[in-house]
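Lecture notes, continued. The same structure-token format from the folding unit now serves as the input rather than the output. Read the line below as a description of shape only.
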């Protein structure tokens, strides 16, 4: 399918997992009714709880709280939330990108921040675990240490689908251009960048980074985001789709809801033909960079 509609769901996810998933199910129904072939959700779409278990681009870890299912932030995959998405994908015969959720580590220990892609038969066809964790000591002494509770993934993930070749990232990953270039070199045409960005960083960095990732790789960027007041910050929102020329072709309002955009893979191919930056690379020189 060379041209299709994608629906971005902007969420204000909180600590009631069943309520969050109920809203998501309704948004998926709405998107399917309006002809979307693919629905994309934001980071930690199903549960954002206390500071101890919240995840995003910025947070301060203070240990981990174990809660009873279904309010436990950690889930196996497939599990409570992904099974709802799988049923919806099969019901409407559409693709659903989960954004991300807190995956229970099968080996125990630190959880994963994981994204799954579900095809139009309701099957999981790809799973990506966030590669980059935000670890820093700020000038005022505040310690931000995602890796204390989140185990980073080990694989770059792309998926061949009837909607094109898709590449996956989560939130803080967008600051690492190497990841996106690697996916583009594997043939990715559409990048997914679900996020829970802070207002402080989002207002200055979110759009410029996304547009750059689109331009430098000649790819669409589908960026579904959280909005609203979280435990430690206000989420920036501004879910958007950027085309391969770097134009923001859809942007969410400052509210929870669904935003639509058209993905046109013929246009993507024309942009790459006009600006062949992937073909003009000097890998013979770059190999010295570490």
């Amino acid at each position: 399918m060379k041209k299709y509609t994608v629906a971005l769901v902007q969420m204000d996810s909180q600590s009631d997992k069943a309520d969050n998933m109920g809203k998501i199910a309704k948004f998926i129904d709405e998107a399917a009714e309006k002809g979307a072939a693919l629905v994309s959700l934001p980071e930690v779409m199903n549960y954002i709880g206390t500071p101890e278990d919240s995840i995003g681009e910025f947070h301060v870890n203070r240990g981990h709280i174990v809660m009873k299912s279904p309010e436990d932030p950690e889930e196996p995959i497939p599990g409570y939330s992904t099974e709802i998405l799988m049923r919806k994908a099969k019901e409407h015969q559409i693709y659903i990108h989960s954004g991300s959720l807190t995956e229970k580590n099968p080996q125990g220990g630190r959880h994963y921040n994981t994204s799954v892609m579900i095809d139009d038969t309701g099957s999981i066809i790809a799973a990506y675990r966030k590669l980059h964790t935000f670890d820093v000591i700020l000038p005022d002494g505040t310690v931000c240490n995602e890796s204390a509770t989140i185990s980073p993934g080990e694989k770059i993930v792309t998926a061949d689908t009837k909607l094109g070749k898709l590449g996956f990232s989560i939130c803080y990953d967008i600051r690492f251009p190497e990841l996106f270039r690697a996916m583009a070199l594997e043939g990715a045409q559409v990048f997914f960048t679900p996020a829970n960005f802070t207002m402080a960083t989002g207002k200055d960095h979110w759009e410029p980074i996304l547009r750059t990732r689109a331009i430098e790789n000649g790819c669409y960027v589908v960026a579904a985001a959280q909005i609203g007041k979280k435990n430690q910050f206000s989420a920036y929102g501004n879910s958007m789709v950027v085309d391969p020329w770097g134009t923001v072709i859809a942007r969410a309002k400052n509210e929870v809801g669904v935003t639509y955009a058209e993905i046109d893979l013929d246009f993507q191919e024309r942009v790459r033909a006009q600006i062949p930056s992937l073909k003009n690379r000097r890998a013979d020189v770059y190999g010295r960079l570490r």
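Point for the exam: Residues 3-278 form a domain with the Nitrilase/N-carbamoyl-D-aminoacid amidohydrolase fold (CATH 3.60.110.10).
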